[in-house]
Amino acid sequence: MPTLLQRLADMPPDAWTVCPQCTAPLYEPRLRHSRRVCPECTHHLPLALTERIDSLADEGSFEEADPDLAPRDPLSFIDSRPYRDRLAEQTARGGRPDAAAYGTATVGGRPVVLCVLDFAFLGGSMGSVVGEKVALAGELALRRRVPLITCSSSGGARMQEGALSLLQMAKTADTMRRLAAAGVPHISVLVDPVYGGVMASFASLADVIIAEPGARAGFAGPRVIAQTIRQELPAGFQSAEFLLRQGHIDAVVPRFELGAVLERLVAFHARAESGVARDRHQGHRRSAGPRAFGLAATGSATGLEDDARDDAWDSVRLARHPCRPLPDDYLAAVFDELVELRGDRWSEDDPAIRGGLAVLDGTPVVVVASRKGRGTQEALARNFGMAHPSGYRKARRLMEYAERFGVPLVTLVDTPGAYPGVQAEEGNQSGAIAANLAVLAGLRTPVVAAVVGEGGSGGALALAVSDRLLMLANATLSVISPEGAAAILFGDPGRAPAAARALRLTAPDLMDLGIVDEIVPEPGEGAQTDPEATFGAVRSAIGRQIAELSALPVEDLLRDRHLRLRSFGCLDRRTP
């Protein structure tokens, strides 16, 4: 009977491979079954082009377009060998004329356009054919109004095609600009590695950017950095996890989970597109007429408990109650199918702001929420709900996402205010808040804001400018904290209860001032006594307001929002 070593020796030489990360020997049939994820250390090994397509799309659904599109040699380029010879060798080896394939497919049974780069062909470099196929894929998605999914693995622009390769960056960027302007989604998947011209063009110009674990991505690769500026790089530099911390991408998703995430994203946008198409067929709907604004603002506290507390300091204490439901709780209980999107695409992912794509009673929405955290450790990690400029930039990115795809925006507010530290000032906290106020004022989609705890100063307002402002019965909204007002005005922080009453920061006070449209009742002694009832009341109120606002044409919505903002204030206009 042959020994194990003899049986191994009799196997074909390509039956085994070695994990490049943990050096474990891997049996190829088992590795293929695991989609080439090492069972020992979960390192994601490269997939062949066909394997990659199968991992992204429904089985057998991909139909390739323009498979014979082949590159030329416009520069008659020769390095150690002619470019033409390199192309011929690569084509003979892989049976394909270049590094990209695009076509139609389905994900979760819904139509998409898929474009995948193959690193095995000249490092997935972007020459004229790759750029053209990315552009063609975008144009096909635009015509069909279905999501474009790109999957990039590339060393960058193709040097052998010179400046023509460089200009593919501009070509593909223009395609993504046109998709965004038309409200057609682009989902970018990054797989190891993605550098140079691909990362600095279409791969970064997406509504959602997802990376596989450990994928390396950036503009200049480590070798270029080392040779150019001799800078020592930190561990994990340019990894997917690094990019997530820096706020450059939305999620790191393991290969086996990627299909489910793509299905949810595609389903969200199918719902959104269905609503857009329905609006097109119905045409311009007549407005229900302008609302009344100012001191005689409409709104109702119907359902508010008869014994609701009317002392402002009681409301402050209940709004801050340690057991009170937090925005994270509302995200889980009020909305369905939440897909969190992270990062400001600039500097970091601020944990004090959370948001993403969700569904509310069948309606796709974008939701943005402040996050305080439960308990000391979590509260510290989330900065007690006080956002940095990066948090407000993340929120603004999601606001613009809602506008681009014509879905309502819902914001949940529970924050003592914006973070006031040195780092925030260095990051232009004022500018970040101001930009959000301007974006919300002109956002071309319905906006519903709900203050579910405390709303402090401009940091809260940066999420609360809206068509309808809701408040839980014991929530508060104020220009400053009662303690801060007491210290400034009375010289005594201990007089915070008196300052709270003077500030008129309770929901009934703010309804009297024409600021709040609806007070959502709280059960018993506050939301913490019956969270489920509170969640149900908030869900019902938000859904009702969205339904009413969605019936208005966009121009009427914007006009009413402008009139609403113009109405705020108490002026005595005297005639000379």
Protein architecture, described:
With 576 residues, the protein is an alpha/beta fold. It has 3 domains: 1-45, no CATH class; 47-269, Alpha-Beta Complex (2-enoyl-CoA Hydratase, Chain A, domain 1); 329-566, 2-enoyl-CoA Hydratase, Chain A, domain 1 (Alpha-Beta Complex), CATH 3.90.226.10. It contains 22 helices and 18 strands. The protein has helices at residues 4-10, 28-33, 49-56, 83-94, 128-144, 162-182, 196-199, 222-229, 240-245, 255-282, 312-319, 327-334, 375-381, 389-404, 422-426, 429-442, 457-464, 482-490, 496-503, 507-512, 531-550, 554-567; strands at 16-18, 25-27, 63-65, 100-107, 110-117, 148-154, 186-195, 208-211, 217-218, 251-252, 336-340, 353-360, 363-370, 409-415, 447-456, 468-472, 476-478, 518-520. The strands form 3 sheets. Strands 3, 4, 5, 6, 7, 8, 9 and 10 form an 8-stranded mixed sheet that branches. Strands 11, 12, 13, 14, 15, 16, 17 and 18 form an 8-stranded mixed sheet that branches. A two-stranded antiparallel ribbon has the order 1-2. Strand 5, helix 5 and strand 6 (148-154) form a beta-alpha-beta unit. Helix 14 (389-404) packs parallel to helix 16 (429-442) and helix 16 (429-442) runs parallel beside helix 17 (457-464). The longest helix is centred in the middle third of the chain and has 28 residues, at 255-282. It is elongated. The model is unreliable at 280-309 (pLDDT under 50).
